[in-house]
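>> received
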Amino acid sequence: MRIRGKSLVSLCFGALFFAAASTLVHAAPNSAPPPPLVAQRVSLTSVDGKGGRATSLYGVWIKARTSLATDKNGRFPTVIAMHGCGGLYSMVRDGKGEFTPRHLAMARVLTDAGYNVLFPDSFTPRGRRSTCQDSLSQREASAQNRRYDVQAALHWVSQQKDVDTTRLALLGWSHGASTILASLNLADTDVAVRKIQPRAAVAFYPDCRPYAKPSEPFKPASPLLILMGENDDWTPPQACEAMQKKMQGADTEIALRLYPDTYHDFDAPGMPVHVRMDIAGVGKPGEGVTSGANPDARALAYRSMLNFLDAKLNY
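>> returned
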């Protein structure tokens, strides 16, 4: 893979506004930096479908920067993007945060392509920065519980005048990608009765193990694209391969793209490949997990993602 990726890095934001700190690497050396992304912090209410407990959350709302994908009424397709176990920010100080390079990259790519983006924050309002080192039993914001955060986000975007509710997509990374799988599963009643359903979903390196089991029902509400590295030992791809095989012949498309010589977090700009011994991995128990960027794989994955979203949303 020799296609050069779009290395979009580093965005700092205050309470409500983003300020771009760098530009695309492929831009001309003397070109002007892109205009800053303007974001709004919005309030969401996540309601547990089993106990009815309400949790006040917030999200970061960034509007599309081009009108290429609007419908005749000026409404945009919209993506709800769920962060992974490391949270949405690389730093939080005095009530202000800094988006990680991965989330900044995605915000720029999607808004430049004509999509509104909502990044729900599942952790900070719950008093957490990260849950990567927690055991599954310690995670209050589990993938299954976070599907209610997705439902809160779907409800919020459906109230926005510039959102085309017939063209919604879900996207997530790792724990957030696992959340996407849970929030798509029509085998769960709260998902099946939801009035607003996405038309597409993209999952970067999810944990597919729960849905790979033959006895576990999985019926996705929309076509699903899974993007991950062949060498991922944090969320090994074999489970997603098994899930895809199990779903062959189903009504809803599941596409799996695997990238060689590629590990977890491959789309995180500038992250060196390294081993984390603080994570209870499932690929190599006791040996830690491998994480780090592969710019070529990221470029291919972004291309697949944009093509997939365009095919499913911009009809």
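>> Confidence is low (pLDDT under 50) at residues 1-29.
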